[in-house]
């Protein structure tokens, strides 16, 4: 997962790699801010699309005020409309916003406080298939010391957090029972609940989710 403070030599790579300028659409927000953002992006040689019947390379969602379910619905709608990438823009992204962004399937999350140049390069990186999230937000979600705080930020219970850490280590239910001292039947129930809580279909998906959210590095806490 790349962050908005790390950029490789991708400047201009998008326009060089394609005959036409990348086609962007801006969703949500008040008209004044949205129009200003569109003008800025157009000045960076992005093609701003407003008609629904035109193909879109990337949708940029102004996510201030959107609940997590609403954000997920917007992302799903943009995907169905043919947008290859969907990114979010928030005034001050926090750890909880990062969790919501990842669960909604956003390809990037950017801050209104970033410089125009950082915004341009972030958009370019996303169009190249990279995930772009603010460093300080990612670090905050990975370094929380308080279990309740981390669980709340990730939208799970503390018990779910414990099970997900152990799934990230690749442990079977029997092994988890041995680590935690719980009956295997209880472990099976708690693992099933944790998997359902994050919307995963199976324990493999849940393990990948846990690793993506940095829980593998802290799996030792559950031992």
Structure description:
Helices cover 50% and strands 12% of the residues. The chain has 223 residues and is an alpha/beta fold. It is elongated. Mean pLDDT is 80; it is low at 1-18 and 218-223. The protein has helices at residues 13-17, 31-43, 68-80, 95-104, 116-127, 135-142, 147-154, 158-168, 173-180, 184-197, 203-212; strands at 2-3, 23-27, 47-48, 58-62, 85-90, 108-111, 132-133. The chain has a five-stranded parallel sheet with strand order 3-2-4-5-6. It has two domains: 2-140, 3-Layer(aba) Sandwich (Rossmann fold); 146-222, Arc Repressor Mutant, subunit A (Orthogonal Bundle), CATH 1.10.10.
In terms of DSSP E residues, the strand content is 5-15%
SS content category: alpha/beta
* Overall body shape: elongated
Q: Overall mean pLDDT score?
A: 80
In the CATH hierarchy, the architecture of the largest domain is 3-Layer(aba) Sandwich
Annotation field: number of helices: 11
Quick one: CATH superfamily of the largest domain? Response regulator
Give the count of structural domains: 2
CATH class of the largest domain: Alpha Beta
In CATH terms, what is the fold-level topology of the largest domain? Answer: Rossmann fold
H/E topology pattern? EHEHEEHEHEHEHHHHHH
| Largest sheet features | 5 strands, parallel
Helix amount, in percent? 40-55%
Strand order of the largest sheet: 3-2-4-5-6
> In total, how many beta strands?
7
